[in-house]
Design goal:
2 copies of one chain form a homodimer.
Chain A: E1 5-12, E2 17-23, E3 28-34, H1 38-44, H2 46-56, E4 65-69, E5 82-84, E6 87-88, H3 89-94, E7 97-98, E8 106-108, E9 111-114, E10 121-123, H4 126-134, E11 141-146, E12 151-157, E13 160-167, H5 169-179, H6 182-186, H7 195-207, H8 212-226, H9 230-249, E14 259-263, H10 265-277, E15 282-286, H11 287-303
Parallel strand pairs in A: 1-4, 4-8, 5-9, 11-14, 14-15
Antiparallel strand pairs in A: 1-2, 2-3, 6-13, 7-8, 9-10, 11-12, 12-13
């Protein structure tokens, strides 16, 4: 049944692992998702984690594998280096690093580095999303917002990544909601929503970003003095952190083409609501689709050239 | 030897416990410091924690005890309530809550609450520091910066707390340095210092507070791309968080009397350096002294009136 499979595409992040088995027509014929990210794989072994997922989708022993993400970091499987800014997206797929000593052809795509002493920055995985989201033939300027553990705001011009900034928004949300006094305020808020609290926090943080650490504490103080639900506190926390990110991302002139928002699921919903609160139009692009498309573009370029 | 002791003063915070045995002349004749804060005492029992420290300094069985801080919180020993803003500091020492069922006279000072729906806030412990730092007869306007786990910026006018804002600066520092990707960047930086990294982070965050979550990530990216010490990364983290706090605290017109900085030890050093970086003059007041003086003022008012 799997005889038509052409290659395997893997998005290997810090804490997540996704694999697609793709046929000659570009169709997905098998898929795996797990939390065997770099953190887990660095302990268990990257080769054995990958093999277990390849076995699970019945991938043939000669099938080549293309990987993007943190598996290519220094603390990953094989360091895949960086393409430096200004970084043509085409250069990313030309510099895949081979994993030595494997029976099949396994390669890891490089990241992009901004070696600017006053604004040093790095990405790994997002370059492949960008490839899928914008394509290789993209012309004109684009500003791309890519929410996540480490949100990226990327300026692309004519298919070249010119500059980008990383914001620790998602990781701050986790750390603050688990490891500070706000953990009491948000406890038990797992599924509930409070869009009004989110929107007013986005607006407040956007207006006075310097008060971010005060707006966070207010979520706790409001509950102590006036009651209020855990969902309200959690959405206030989330809206505050996203609001200051948007204050920075929107601080300069926007390109005529507007903003592309590359996200999926709950993050897509939250960021759309945040941009809407600030009356800024965005064009949404599904992040899961984008990374798979980017990997497929790269795989075809590597193994059919 | 201890026959001259008049009362016991206790500053009981979330994670710290300090006790002073004070004689009739106001001199400290015994002292204890430990990490038996509210978090520990809530499990072990407040009465037994206090008694063990009273035994250690040989406090007589009839000696009264005055407490300030989180022991008076809802999750503390006895809820001591709040004086609402505008809060005369004199009202704080008039509303000490007695701890029932104890053989000796034990009272806990209330906190201060700002019941403002658009800027709700609370303090517990800092009101006693303010009492000691400014005294009861203070006239004129004062802006007081009180760095800590939850830094407070307090506007006092004629001995009355008019408004205040809490910033989660210290707690964010702990959470970010322990629970995010920056934990790798700061690992091993325990004693080293890097004042230049601190100062340039303060200046950068003060100038563009919206970029705080980006400036934090740069500490990691700089290390990946250019090397750099753990101390540099830690001071960048610290300077960024203090820099945005100062951007908020200094956003409005300052009183003629300038800013009082109530702090001790390393925090005093860091905040002085931060204010100096921004060319803002401050009058330092020792925080440890201030809380002890505030407790003593309250104890004398309560037990000699």
């Amino acid at each position: 049944m799997m005889s038509d499979a052409a290659y395997v595409a893997v998005d290997w992040g810090t804490s997540s692992f996704r694999l697609w088995l793709v046929d000659r027509a570009g169709q997905v014929v098998g898929e795996r998702r797990s939390d065997d990210g770099m953190m887990t794989a660095a302990k268990v072994g990257f080769a054995s984690v990958l093999q277990s997922h390849l076995d699970a989708v019945g991938a043939g022993i000669d099938l080549p594998v293309l990987i993007c993400g943190m598996a290519g970091a220094r603390q990953g499987w094989v360091e895949a280096g960086y393409v430096d800014t200004p970084a043509p997206l085409a250069a990313v797929l030309e510099r895949a690093a081979p994993v030595a000593g494997q029976s099949r052809d396994i390669r890891i795509l490089p990241g992009i580095a901004q070696r600017d002493g006053s604004a040093p920055d790095v990405m790994r995985g997002e370059e492949t999303q960008l490839l899928g989201a914008l394509g290789l033939g993209a012309s004109g300027e684009a500003l791309v917002c890519m929410p996540g553990t480490h949100s990226k705001w990327v300026s692309v011009n004519g298919g070249t990544v010119e500059r980008f900034s990383t914001f620790m928004t998602g990781e701050l949300f986790s750390a603050v909601s688990r490891e500070t006094i706000l953990s009491h305020a948000v406890a038990g808020a797992d599924d509930a929503e409070d869009r009004e609290a989110f929107k007013s926090a986005v607006a407040a943080a956007f207006k006075t970003p310097a008060f971010a650490a005060n707006l966070l504490f207010q979520a706790r103080a409001r509950q102590l003095l006036f009651g209020g639900t855990p969902a309200e506190a959690r959405e206030t926390l989330s809206g505050t952190l996203i609001g200051i990110e948007l204050a920075a991302g929107l601080a300069r002139a926007l390109p005529q083409a507007g903003i592309r928002l590359v996200a999926s699921g709950r993050l897509l919903m939250l960021y759309r609501l945040a941009f809407e609160t600030l009356a800024v139009a965005v064009e949404p692009i599904d992040a899961d689709e984008a990374v798979r498309r980017g990997l497929s573009m790269a795989a075809r370029a590597i193994w059919t050239r």
